Amino acid sequence: MDLYEVLSRKACTEKTFISITGGGGKTTLMTEFASYLRSSGKRVLMTTTTKIMSPYLHDYKTDGIFSDDSVLSFAPECPCSVIYALEDKETGKWRCPPVEIFDVLIKRYDAIICEADGSRRLPFKIHAQRDPVILPFTTYTVSVMGLWGIGHEAREVAFGDDRNVVVDRSYLNWYLNDPEGLLKGSLKGSRAIVFNGAEDFKDTGMLRGLDYPQDVYVCTASAREGILYEELN
Predict the structure, then answer these.
(1) Distance between CA atoms of 182 and 209, rounded to whole angstroms?
(2) Rounded to a whole number, what is the largest CA-CA distance in the chain?
């Protein structure tokens, strides 16, 4: 199955604002999801409420890049995918624009996809008090976890966790249900978990037996390839 076709069917409404949290493939998922929606005839804007890689260093497959108020002068009339965030010349990262500007932008685009979390490219993210940053415009949340972190010590693969415990079934159940774990801030009834990296992961039996909230859609997938391997609930 096509991962983005399924997520689009579940997440997209007349005006969609998707917040992506967690670790292990958020930027790839945002890029490929936006590309899919564009090919489906949507006007799509990508952004962040934290920090993302510069669009001059990462290929977001965009039709336009905006780093200032010039985004307000662009009125999309046909399918497109653009990115908007503020350039931080000191760090090289691009950061969250003024929140109030989304009052305008959400009326111009069919879908806005927002990277709402940071994990320093690690597969797991244990949240601090200040994150994830999920805006009130959000209509759907997608929480991402990198399967390649399973079997390693948390201090090596989980941003925010310095323990030397192994990421195993017990750890994953804790990660799924702890208030500061994977699903922190996700919208009950309008949320998904994407276990990313399924193309190289064999122990799907472990994932089937985990304790998932009843209202969350769960799948294993490859965000890079856009392939949905298995639906777990």
Answers:
(1) 17
(2) 52
**Residues of the chain with confidence (pLDDT) below 70:** none
Q: Which amino acid is at 114?
A: C
Residues in Cβ contact with 73 at an 8 Å cutoff, skipping those fewer than 6 apart = none
Distance between CA atoms of residues 186 and 216, nearest Å? 9
Full residue range of the structural domain in which residue 28 is found: 3-231
pLDDT, position 120: 86
What pLDDT, on the 0 to 100 scale, is given for residue 167?
Answer: 97
Give pTM, 2 decimals: 0.96
Find, among 119, 121, 120, 115, the residue nearest to 135 by Cα.
115
Write the secondary structure of the chain as one string of H (helix), E (strand) and C (coil).
CEHHHHHHHHHCCCCEEEEEEECCCHHHHHHHHHHHHHHCCCEEEEEECCEECCCCCCCCCCCEEECCHHHHHCCCCCCEEEEECEECCCCCCEECCCHHHHHHHHHHCCEEEEECCCCCCCCEECCCCCCCCCCCCCCEEEEEEEHHHCCCEHHHHEECCCCCCECCHHHHHHHHHCCCCCCCCCCCCCEEEEEECHHHCCCHHHHHCCCCCCCEEEEEEECCCCEEEEECC
Query: How far is Cα 74 from Cα 167, in angstroms, rounded to an integer?
Result: 46
Asked if 197 and 149 touch (Cβ cutoff 8 Å), the reply is no
Q: Count structural domains, the chain.
A: 1
Distance CA 157, CA 122 (A): 6
Q: Which residue has the tokens 């669009």?
A: 55
CATH label of the domain that carries residue 70: 3.40.50
